[in-house]
Each structure stands twice: as C-alpha cells, then as structure tokens.
Design a protein that fits this description.
- There is one protein chain.
- Helix content is 62%, strand content 8%.
- The protein has helices spanning 10-21, 27-35, 42-54, 75-91, 95-105, 110-125; strands at 25-26, 58-61, 68-71.
- By secondary structure, the chain is mostly helical.
- The protein has a 3-stranded antiparallel sheet.
- A hairpin with a 6-residue loop joins strand 2 (58-61) and strand 3 (68-71).
- The longest helix has 17 residues, at 75-91.
- Helix 2 (27-35) crosses helix 3 (42-54).
- The chain has 2 domains: 10-71, Winged helix-like DNA-binding domain superfamily/Winged helix DNA-binding domain (Arc Repressor Mutant, subunit A, Orthogonal Bundle); 94-126.
Amino acid sequence: MKNKIPAISESEWEILKVLWAKAPQTANDIISSLQAQTTWKPKTVRTLLDRLTKKEVVGVHKNQKVYTFYPRYSQDECQRAKADSFLKRFYDGTLKSMLVQFIQDEDLSEEDIKELRSILDKKDKK
C-alpha cells in the first residue's frame, strides 16, 4: 500500500502481531491469542480492533456470519513507518546519526562487526 500508515500505539501493535501471525481472525480468536500475553479484557481488545479499523490499518470481512479481521499493511511496512517516525523525532531524520551513536555506544562482537561490514559492502555494490 502506498498510503501513509497512521500512528499505531504499542497496544495496537500487539493486535497487529496476532493478525500478522495468522489472518483473517475473528475478534474472539484475537482475544484468545492475547489472553496468554496480556491482562486485557475482551472489551479492551474490541476497542483496539475498532481503533485499528477506523485508522484503516485493519480491514474487516463482513460477508460472513462472524466478522473477521485482517491487516491492511504488512509487518515490514509498519516497521519501516515506525522506524521513519523514530528517526524524524530523535535524529532529525538522519539514519547516519543514529547508526553512529548506536555503534559507538554498543559493545559489538567481531561477528557483529563482520555482519555490519557485509551489509555495507552489499549496499555499496548496488
């Protein structure tokens, strides 16, 4: 999808994770999946589904006896939008600033460094 992805709260992310794992699902299926991970009441899950539907992040199949929900954006699309938002808020939109800070602040193993070099080498060849 080419549309700008609306802001998604942490709670809404939990709903989307369930749908990305398997879709479509009924509200009851989603509630059951989340009961093991959260203390949310069914009404909370339904409210979050309603919000995601209004934001057009989640779609609804209404042509069956029971409505089923499905994600309208892939996990990758949502993660990219979240990363872009993070970069804009904290690093003035520049990936380089963020990467430099993380590389300087983190203890990277030789394996991590090799993997980063490999990624950069592949990027350089494109």
